[in-house]
Amino acid sequence: MEDRDRAALAVVLLDAYRGTIDDEGETEVEARAAIDYYLRCLIREHSVVVSDADSLIAMSFVVVVGTTHYIDPVATASSRKGRGFGRAAVEASLGSLSAAGVGEVGAVITDGNTASQRLFEGLGFERVGVWG
Fold it and tell me: If phi over 0 gives left and psi between -120 and 50 gives alpha, with beta otherwise, what is residue 124?
């Protein structure tokens, strides 16, 4: 993942959220600002971007809040949802974290985002409460 990919990452983030519970009507400019924020604070060695020859498909970013590693965000291009790309990205992030000796990982999921809830529950995550 390179900083030069920020426009493509913003497009995937915006596309993944469009029409979902996480859609707040963001513009491409706002999506780029969100990606710029993540690129400043994410842990690159554990963050994963899935792509093919034509485009970026999915992302799993890892950030640290306090002393806990979190996967946030996970996004998959709408044309590729339901094919396991988001899960593959998250599994790769988790594998990298595990190899580095990280034993506790959290995820931030919007209440009502059933696709993300199913993804993380399927990976063994348990709900521990509300963020904040």
Answer: left
Measure the CA angle with vertex 92, ends 86 and 93; round to 5°: 90
Question: What are the structural domain ranges in the chain?
Answer: 3-122
CA separation for the pair 76, 49 (Å, rounded) = 10
Going residue by residue through the chain, which has 132 residues, state the pLDDT in tens, using 9 for 90 and above. 566 688 999 999 999 999 999 999 999 999 999 999 999 999 999 999 999 988 899 999 999 999 999 999 999 999 999 999 999 999 999 999 999 999 999 998 988 899 999 999 999 999 887 765
Alpha carbon separation from 22 to 34, 52, 94 (Å, rounded) = 13, 25, 23
List helix spans (H) across the chain: 6-17, 28-41, 85-99, 114-122
Structure-block tokens of residue 64: 């640290």
Would you tell me which CATH number, out of the four given (3.40.630.30, 3.90.550.10, 3.40.50.720, 3.30.70.270), belongs to the domain 3-122?
A: 3.40.630.30
Question: Shortest CA distance to 90 belongs to which of 65, 124, 114?
Answer: 124
